[in-house]
Amino acid sequence: MKRDMELIRKMVLAVEEGPDGYVPDDLRIDGYRPEHLAYHAHLLIQAGLATGPITTHINGSGPSAQIAALTWDGHDFADAARDETRWQKAMGIVQEKGGAVTLDIVKDVLLRLARASLGV
């Protein structure tokens, strides 16, 4: 399964919108199957954007995890990626330069765009 930056963004923003800081067990994102969410939850935890238990089972269909909460870095990513115009511009820049998308590159581009919008 390929990493989907759009899904990562949607998951981080959905988690942040929770009323108490915790993620419901039934987190759903329209258009994505539960195994996509479980795999990307695993990636979010590996990347340090979220905390939670790894739930991969030997008979499972792939790596999986359950997000418990966002980390400080996860909230920073949400702040940088929240604005739809900035997100689309960042993704356009990344794709224009070669299309290889890593989380660090996306975060760097988002932060540069955020700094530029603030004049710093």
Biggest sheet overview? 2 strands, antiparallel
CATH class: Mainly Alpha
Estimate the strand proportion.
under 5%
The domain tally reads 1
Q: Could you say which overall geometry the principal axes of the C-alpha atoms support?
A: globular
Give the number of helices.
5
Q: How many DSSP-defined strands?
A: 2
Question: What does the radius of gyration come to?
Answer: 15 Å
Q: Indicate the structural class.
A: mainly alpha
Helix/strand order, N-terminal first: HHEEHHH
CATH topology: Arc Repressor Mutant, subunit A
Question: Biggest sheet: strands side by side, in what order?
Answer: 1-2
How would you concisely characterize the structure shown here?
Strands 1-2 form a two-stranded antiparallel sheet.
Structure, described:
With 120 residues, this protein is mainly alpha-helical. The protein has one domain: Arc Repressor Mutant, subunit A, CATH 1.10.10. The protein has helices at residues 5-16, 34-46, 72-81, 84-96, 103-118, and strands at 50-51, 69-70. A two-stranded antiparallel sheet has the order 1-2. The chain is globular.
What's the structural blueprint in terms of helices and strands?
Blueprint (H helix, E strand, L loop, with lengths): L4 H12 L17 H13 L3 E2 L17 E2 L1 H10 L2 H13 L6 H16 L2
Helix pairs in contact: 1-2, 1-3, 4-5
